[in-house]
Amino acid sequence: xxxxxxxxxxxxxxxxxxxxxxxxxxxxxxxxxxxxxxxxxxxxxxxxxxxxxxxxxxxxxxxxxxxxxxxxxxxxxxxxxxxxxxxxxxxxxxxxxxxxxxxxxxxxxxxxxxxxxxxxxxxxxxxxxxxxxxxxxxxxxxxxxxxxxxxxxxxxxxxxxxxxxxxxxxxxxxxxxxxxxxxxxxxxxxxxxxxxxxxxxxxxxxxxxxxxxxxxxxxxxxxxxxxxxxxxxxxxxxxxxxxxxxxxxxxxxx
Amino acid sequence: xxxxxxxxxxxxxxxxxxxxxxxxxxxxxxxxxxxxxxxxxxxxxxxxxxxxxxxxxxxxxxxxxxxxxxxxxxxxxxxxxxxxxxxxxxxxxxxxxxxxxxxxxxxxxxxxxxxxxxxxxxxxxxxxxxxxxxxxxxxxxxxxxxxxxxxxxxxxxxxxxxxxxxxxxxxxxxxxxxxxxxxxxxxxxxxxxxxxxxxxxxxxxxxxxxxxxxxxxxxxxxxxxxxxxxxxxxxxxxxxxxxxx
Lengths: 254, 245
Description:
Number of strands of chain A: 0
Strand content of chain A: under 5%
CATH class of the domain at 37-45 and 83-243 in chain B: Alpha Beta
CATH superfamily of the domain at 37-45 and 83-243 in chain B: P-loop containing nucleotide triphosphate hydrolases
Oligomer: heterodimer
CATH class of chain A: Mainly Alpha
Number of helices of chain B: 9
Number of strands of chain B: 10
Helix content of chain A: over 70%
Order of helices and strands of chain A: HHHHHHHHHHH
Distance between the termini of chain B: 35 Å
Largest sheet of chain B: 6 strands, mixed
GO molecular function, one term (chain A): transmembrane transporter activity
CATH topology of chain A: MetI-like fold
GO cellular component, one term (chain A): ATP-binding cassette (ABC) transporter complex
Largest interface: A-B, 20 and 27 residues
Pfam family, one (chain A): BPD_transp_1
Radius of gyration of chain A: 24 Å
Strand content of chain B: 15-25%
Family (chain A): Belongs to the binding-protein-dependent transport system permease family. HisMQ subfamily.
Protein name (chain A): Amino acid ABC transporter permease
């Protein structure tokens, strides 16, 4: 067997891929999606709270947001996942009797995501011109109504691309949950692929898992580009009637 | 337009500092209901800050603000600002909302009007500034002059007792200035109480009832337009006028 053939066998063993595909689709994919979606939603909500606290006029709130962000953005994801998963696991089991690693996995991922998303939202909100808040206050809106109706919607719009990027990394980081131990039905994409790879001594199942990750992340990447472009160029406008008239006029001159 | 029965505005001995920078040093300003007061003066003289203090976007360090003879410093500032419309140099329209939504937002959320009522009122207000046909457009697709007219409609929709204009034409291309100034002059003629911070000396002379000249955070001279423009008493006003006229 020459080297090329061996490489092909190691990475692209179609039979091995076909064997793992049912598990990937029925176990791994739903679990990965569930982890990413749940922590994405929680991370977005908590991130917004952090952002609002971070620009608050109350110094204590600002500090809390700052410290939270520094810790959970500054630590490696796997450290947080292990500390939360292994540290709080027994306590959770005592209280609820549940042995599922998912609540703590989602908690750990949400802690990380919210720290990043908070910074994304804060930078977006702070990029909105001061005049917007001023105009809203001048109309008689309170500070919180002004933020809610005028400033935050504009700020969020500006950082949508960065936000989607964060969702992409969340999908990838959800693979680290395997560190806290998963039973067969709890495995997400990476773990399903990796188990099959270890069992068969062939990396093709992992390639299959990778392809499924790409199926999730590549559309999101393009969504980022689309949003980014839309935000920069704006929706295609119908030209104004007088613009049209001017162009028709030019035609007549020529 | 509804006639407004109140709107006499008085600022008394207003002081404001930002750190060591004493921006307002005891300003007195009295605007009788139904009149237009223009405030002129060099850049950095505190004119725009004065407007923001008068509607308590910035709280004064010292002094009093009276609306119809009653101090408003103890009132809820949000409620005070609903009685005072403000138009900005940079328009400050909400770019994520349509023209109609810009005008109707405060009607719906603050006046608690139904969507239909607010829409009717906003459209009527847009009609007044000649932009009803732009109701569903985003502000970014309008010219500066159109944007400023929408901003005026937005402020007027709240039926303010007083209107503030903060260099409302300074950011406009020259050919667009006229339309906005004409609209302001119409408002003044219709009996709106207005405080106009402006660099448009023609407007100040022809439309306003009183002119206040500020420099370095104090009122240097104040009086009817003829007294200010034709009979300046102080060297500071004379030198300012010779620079701008």
